[in-house]
Amino acid sequence: xxxxxxxxxxxxxxxxxxxxxxxxxxxxxxxxxxxxxxxxxxxxxxxxxxxxxxxxxxxxxxxxxxxxxxxxxxxxxxxxxxxxxxxxxxxxxxxxxxxxxxxxxxxxx
Length: 109
What we know:
Structural class: mainly beta
Shape: elongated
CATH class: Mainly Beta
Helix content: under 10%
Largest sheet: 5 strands, antiparallel
Order of helices and strands: EEEEEEEEEE
CATH architecture: Sandwich
CATH topology: Immunoglobulin-like
Strand content: over 45%
Number of strands: 10
Number of helices: 0
Number of domains: 1
Radius of gyration: 25 Å
């Protein structure tokens, strides 16, 4: 799983062996997404959860993934990740001192 300030990216390979079609259950925080498997589709899946999914910066999330089909469910795989804080750049304070005479001095602190 990879993490940014406001996203979690989860990667996995399906374990389909030619049996029933799987549904992947991806949960994070108090939410769950159901992702249908296409037996003739991808072997590898990548899902990025972002701000539109409720992901917030500097927040810890427990992420779980399991598969189910008509035969039952797999054991869930769980991981914990914390989104990073956004980079905040502090600019130096600039003070302009104006003296009505002939000069204007700019001082940086």
